[in-house]
Amino acid sequence: MITVVCLSPSLDQTLSLPALRVGETNRVAQTRTVVGGKGVNVAMCLHAMGAQTALITCRHAQGGERLSEAMEAAGIRCTAVPVTGELRTNLKVMDLSTQTITEINASAAPLEPRHVEALEDAIRAAVRAGDWLVLTGSMPPGCPGDFYARMIRIAHAQGCRVALDAEGEPFRLGVAEKPDFIKPNRHELELFAGHSLRTEQDVLQAAQAIVDGGVETVIVSMDTAGSVLVTQAQRLCADAVKVPVVTTVGAGDALVSGFLKGADAGLPAAQAFGLGVASATRRVAGDVQAVEDYMARVHIRAI
Question: What is the pTM of this model?
Fold first, then answer.
């Protein structure tokens, strides 16, 4: 079982424009609204690939029913802790002329101490030896910065493996607890390292330092420069697969999902990495083909 935690779910509205003209009136060619948040994206991607998946999240007083209904319709087991406030709405503006996306993300409604306690109780009840716990995404106001770090300790005490995909203080404190797998992007890794990472070698050195500190597997996504995987045994690079760009939203979440699906199935790290890259490529291309259709186009090389 792979249990995903999403503290900041959302409604994600994508507005597709022929060309974004800043400061002018723009006409929308297409609108699409789906439930989102990094944890929700990971859970849905894992479920679509056939992994046993569960989601722990917040059910907001206003709009929370839309998330619960979407998870029920998808067939994903969902533990939704009731919280106050409104489910946030994020805007994604797609410029079709340049194939670029501008994201405008709202802050989540604040959590009260009782909500944080209820979420922790739900996570305690879910973790099992040999399973995976996925901690991903931003934390709402009111959630302690060490929440992910504490959940890692709780999971490891039960023999449960942990994946972490966050940034800032939650990421820094979480890494100190030695999760089994982390997936920062280049910017997040730069924030952690405290300096810019201009070259692939810079990224590798920063990732290796984390592995040397006790994290088993580090994957760093680098947009069009591809991604790298670092463990104590190997360093691998996957080039970005060239496909028509439909969206880049959720590509990192799809990479996490594909790798975890492979790791949970017992695949070697290199094969799980390839599955993650194929899953991310499928997301960028608009989810129009099966993940397996992209596997043959994934090129992984040792570095």
Answer: 0.91
